[in-house]
Amino acid sequence: MLSVRGLTKSFGAKRVLDGVDLDLATGESLVVIGGSGTGKSVLLRCILGLETPDAGTILWQGAPLAQRRAEFMDHFGMLFQNAALFDSLPVWRNVAFRLLRTMPKAHARRIALEKLARVGLGPEVADLHPAELSGGMRKRAGLARAIAADPKVIFFDEPTTGLDPIRAAAINMLIRDIVDETGATAITITHDMSSVRSIADRVALLDRGRLRWQGTVDEMDRAGDDYLADFIAGRARPMAWGPG
Ligand SMILES: Nc1ncnc2c1ncn2[C@@H]1O[C@H](COP(=O)(O)OP(=O)(O)OP(=O)(O)O)[C@@H](O)[C@H]1O
After folding, report:
1. Total domain count, the chain
2. What's the 169 CA to ligand 1 centre distance in angstroms?
3. Is residue 19, in this structure, part of any structural domain at all?
4. What is the C-alpha to C-alpha distance for residues 80 and 158, in angstroms, rounded to an integer?
């Protein structure tokens, strides 16, 4: 359903993406891993049309995504790093933000409460403001917002950043369950190997602007790629990969 071909993007003299090819089937959950500054966010931003690639194509359902951007965005949801909620709005209005453009307030609120319940937040949370929530609750509210309009494609940007391991595991489980339930196609970018193991059908390792390796989680553990093995184990090789 989503194909990236030869995606290239430089900032000044620095080539951040250097011919990335990627295919994503409907309902598949792809997790993109890679060291800091390897271009994971730039890849997502190019797919979203927030950056203009220097070269390459992005196809959605077989047609250039750039020509169908509005339709794509109607079917798209995103969990932002640090949840990115609007501080001035109560939680339910954050969740219902897109719905409020197309439906009466009472209906949008009812859906927001359903989505909040789906991510484990009760109705008592609906009228609180984001500042009154813990980090884990903010992530859950961000997740409720991401799924509010029943998206077919969901991006998760570093979903466990800032959470303790137990709350991170809960968010990972919730994401996997939601992806399974909804049949949504998902791309997650993360450094967190627990997210990879919980969420991924397929893993792609981005390194110096290229996809260095991709495969299933099982294949990842047997891959025989030194950098991938170091990444999985959280192992540093002095001077091997630059200051990144
Ligand atoms: N708008 C921009 N202008 C200039 N350089 C940029 C811009 N956006 C990204 N970069 C550079 O592109 C490189 C890749 O950035 P990107 O944010 O995609 O990394 P990342 O893999 O998501 O890293 P992290 O895991 O640390 O978030 C970095 O060196 C960054 O400084």
Report:
1. 1
2. 27
3. no
4. 8
